[in-house]
Amino acid sequence: MKSLLKKIGLNRQHQSGFRVFRLKPVNRPAGRVLISMGSLVYSELRDGLPIRTLHPAAWKNWNLARTFLDLGFQIDAAPSDAQPLFAGKSFDVVIDVRSNLQHLSEVLASHGTRIMFPQFCHWALHNGGQLQRYQNLLLRSGIALQPSRLISYTDSVECADRIVTPGSAFSTRGFSHTGAAIYHINQAPPNATMQFVKRDFDSARKHFLWISGSGAVHKGLDLLLEAFSQRPELHLHICGDISSEQPFTRAFDHLLRERTNVHLHGWMDTQTESWLELCRRCAFVVLHSASEVTATSPIAGMYTGMIPIVNEGADQATMDFGCLLRQATVGELLDALDRMSSASTQELEQQSQASFDHAAHRYTQSGFMLSLRSAMCQALGISREPEWDLMDRPGAVPNRLPVIDDVTREYAG
User: Fold this and answer.
1) CA distances from 381 to 113, 376, 377 (A)
2) Torsion angle, alpha carbons of 55, 57, 63, 69, to 10
3) Which residue of 219, 235, 315, 345 has the smallest Cβ count within 10 Å?
4) SS3 string of 81-119?
5) pTM
6) What is the Cα–Cα distance from 68 to 80, expressed in whole angstroms?
7) For position 413, what pLDDT does the model report?
8) Residues 188, 371 contacting (CB under 8 angstroms)
9) Same CATH fold assignment for domains 2-122+150-188+364-412 and 201-362
């Protein structure tokens, strides 16, 4: 075992921040849980640092752990590439978020109930949708780029006994074939301000916001840039660090920097006054993604009353407002831009309020936490949910921290 660990470079991983952390309940553990979702958040919590808000993963990771702590379980939290460490080990519950469950099923002596808590769609939907976008870009515009967000081909979803997901109809299609019980929970962005913003729709109707992380083609930015190049009277505001995707920015430099109706804001903290001011200028939030598990970026806009223009791949819940795109074409986008920007002020005001009300009801942080706890109890056949009084806010140190031990060397032998 030690030779295997040395071969995979455990010492190098350990020095670069690789850790396995153990979270202990107050009383004698009711069982052992392995969470394969990363462990950096626990290193930082142990050092007294607040939960990061840059990406929702850290906050969700902690809330997942807290759910099982409140159920009386002991938790080992590990990075998703740590499966060799667990050879011969036993757990009552194993939770994975991406592509590790198959490997863990093969190396663990006993794995109990295996739960997939997916961050992405099934690889066939995710990769297939993304590759189609790159093919369309090549055939439509003669631009050949390499995919940047492909995920591993594994049978991790098929290995799951239960699936707990914040996804809606689009992403659920990639899980229903497994026969595993599927439990739906509410989605929530932990890093956005929920505050309805009043707008002057005579001006705001001309302004559209795209906000997203990496994967510009996957998220449809190429389509938007080509569409807005044909609508100079309309404005596209881009929030995201697209400068890190140099092949994309080089290919689209003429549309990114030479068009007066395209505005680059870079990464923006969605909890600031500058974010709210930008939201006040924009009537619409747009996402045309190849695949998501209920994307949180449109929700951040809806938190302020922006009207969503999304496609099926964005995986939003059914809405009777906004615009649903069904094709990955510039033509359909142009039709949507024209139709939405020419709507009456009264209609836009009504849709803006409906958007905010929908997000405030369906996509709250407390709703995510409560539905997560309920789903995990159902998945494990636990009839009585633990009491829950205080929610741990993103960007803060949790109210009640458990004992957190670094047990990396225990697994390293």
Assistant:
1) 11, 8, 6
2) -140
3) 345
4) CCHHHHCCCECCEEEECCCCHHHHHHHCCECCEEEECCC
5) 0.91
6) 19
7) 63
8) no
9) yes
Handedness of CA 260, 266, 270, 275 (dihedral sign): negative
First vs last C-alpha separation in the chain: 8
Residue with tokens 């956005």: 192
CATH classification code of 2-122+150-188+364-412: 3.40.50
Kindly list the domain boundaries of the chain, sorted by start residue. 2-122+150-188+364-412, 201-362
Residue 85 CA to residue 2 CA, distance in Å, equals 10
pLDDT in tens, 64-104: 999 999 999 999 999 877 777 888 999 999 999 988 899 99
Average pLDDT of the segment spanning 298-311: 97
Q: Reply yes or no on whether the pLDDT at 257 is more than 90.
A: no
